[in-house]
UniProtKB/TrEMBL annotation:
Keywords: Kinase, Membrane, Phosphoprotein, Transferase, Transmembrane, Transmembrane helix, Two-component regulatory system. This is histidine kinase. Residues 255-464 form the Histidine kinase domain. It comes from Acidovorax temperans. The keyword RNA-binding does not apply. PANTHER family: SENSOR HISTIDINE KINASE YKOH, SENSOR PROTEIN QSEC. The keyword Repressor does not apply.
Length: 464
């Protein structure tokens, strides 16, 4: 099942660090708004309390009536701001209008303490106002009466003060939020730098390894947090274990192939000698089968040895690829003529690449052997060296034989895969070619030829 990468660690850290900061910033703005409203209301309450007491002192009993000593100048001051006017109402007994604004509503249903102001909210002309109420007694017994004084002020001032305070707070809070966000972003980037260095080092190590079979060098970090050091140490232990497993596999493959070569050579020699000395048809038929099986086994051993060598560390050197291809093609001329196949070379006269001569010879030997084996009698096999793109050359062998179905082209370079049941192959030749191509920082390719045939080869980087 293909794994889909999730959200990056950097995004997760930024999300979990900046999102709480945004929540705190919004919460701080809301709390600042609420505190500003509360403080504005406290200021209004103090003003109304002083006003209602002062107004109550201006009402004096005279005989059976009341004298309101409220100058016109004071009334004009209270009502000078239409948007935020302070209104009042005097009633005696409570609720019976005497003076002021008759629209002031009655207090809520709750006990009223004589001589203590009562503060409450009310609606006047579709506006919310804050009302201060004070009740006092006047007159003498038994004709003592109660007087109610109400002073109201709209909450416009409170809201305006809160808005101004919030606007003054939002700018420094926004700047602080931006600075903090920048610091968090820079801190996350700096904190993830060791992981970036670790990734870059692993990528450089992979690029230095021309083959997947090469052991990767250990990861070295000069300075990194403890968690990254632990991760690097774990990866190094894993790389060491993989390298040991690869070395053991190569050693076993090499040793097994070497141990098998001598007895197989002896078996082939003894079988050929027995065939030469035997004249009975049945015995010769059985000996011929033994000889064919022994030759296939010897070929398999040889291929396994070449595979082990192709996966080992080898030095590279500049070489002339067309010259190498011509030499290998001439070495196969005799065998091609014996098989009734026309073998030739076409392509560049001179082209330099960086490679290992023995490995490239082995790759071309396998390509030619594969073509001669499957092309069939009367076919034409051509070795080509040509430039496919700037800085890239192709070493290919093409034939006009039956070819390979398009759906199996991708399987040609798989180990032990064979395109037919024809005797003589073991399914490792093209796999070795693929290993050698990877060793030379190149890649293999296989493509059909019209009307029939196959072109198989490797692409290699050229030298300037």
């Amino acid at each position: 099942m293909r794994q889909v990468p999730g959200v990056s660690l950097q995004r997760k850290l930024l999300l979990w660090l900046l999102l709480p900061q945004l929540v705190l910033w919004l919460s701080g703005g809301f709390l600042a708004w609420r505190i500003a409203l509360q403080n504005g209301e406290k200021g209004i309450d103090q003003t109304l309390t002083q006003s209602v007491r002062a107004l109550a002192r201006q009402i004096k009993p005279v005989g059976d009536g009341l004298l309101v000593d409220f100058p016109k100048a004071a009334q004009d001051i209270l009502e000078q701001d239409p948007a935020d006017r302070i209104t009042y109402m005097v009633s005696s007994p409570p609720g019976r209008f005497l003076l002021g604004n008759a629209q002031l509503p009655a207090p809520p249903a709750q006990p009223i303490t004589l001589g203590e102001p009562l503060l409450y909210h009310a609606q006047v002309d579709s506006r919310t106002v804050r009302v201060a109420l004070l009740e006092v007694d006047y007159g003498s017994e038994p004709a003592r009466q109660r007087l109610r004084v109400q002073v109201a002020q709209s909450l416009t001032v409170r809201e305006r003060i809160a808005q101004e305070l919030l606007e003054q707070l939002l700018l420094p809070m926004g700047l602080m939020g931006l600075v903090l966000s920048a610091l968090v972003y820079a801190g996350v980037l700096r904190g993830l730098q060791p992981l970036k260095r670790l990734e870059a080092q692993i990528e450089r190590a992979g690029k230095r390894s021309h083959n997947a079979a090469d052991p990767l060098p250990p990861i070295e970090l000069t300075s990194a947090p403890q968690e990254v050091y632990s991760l690097a140490s774990t990866i190094n232990r894993l790389l060491e274990a993989v390298a040991r497993g690869q070395q053991n596999e190569k050693r076993f493959l090499n040793d097994a192939a070497h141990q098998l070569r001598t007895p197989l050579a002896g078996l082939i020699g003894q079988t050929e000698l027995a065939l030469h000395e035997s004249h009975e048809p049945q015995v010769r038929e059985r000996l011929q089968k033994v000889l064919s099986a022994a030759q296939r086994s010897a070929h398999l051993v040889h291929q396994l040895l070449q595979l082990a060598r192709s996966e080992s560390n080898v030095p590279m050197q500049p070489l002339d690829l067309p010259q190498l291809a011509c030499e290998v093609a001439r070495e196969w001329t005799a065998k091609a003529l014996a098989a009734g196949i026309d073998l030739g070379y076409e392509g560049e006269e001179q082209l330099r690449v960086l490679g290992h001569p023995l490995l490239l010879r082995e790759a071309l030997n396998n390509l030619i052997d594969n073509a001669l084996h499957y092309a069939g009698n009367g076919a034409t096999v051509t070795v080509r060296v040509h430039i496919t793109a700037p800085g890239t050359a192709a070493l290919a062998v093409e034939d006009d034989g039956p070819g390979v179905p398009a759906e199996h082209l991708g399987d040609l370079f798989a180990r032990f895969w064979r395109g037919s049941d024809k005797a003589g192959g073991c399914g490792l030749g093209l796999s070795i070619v693929d290993e050698i191509a990877l060793r030379h920082a190149g890649q293999t390719f296989a493509e059909p030829i019209a009307p029939h045939g196959l072109r198989v080869g490797i692409s290699l980087p050229t030298l300037p």
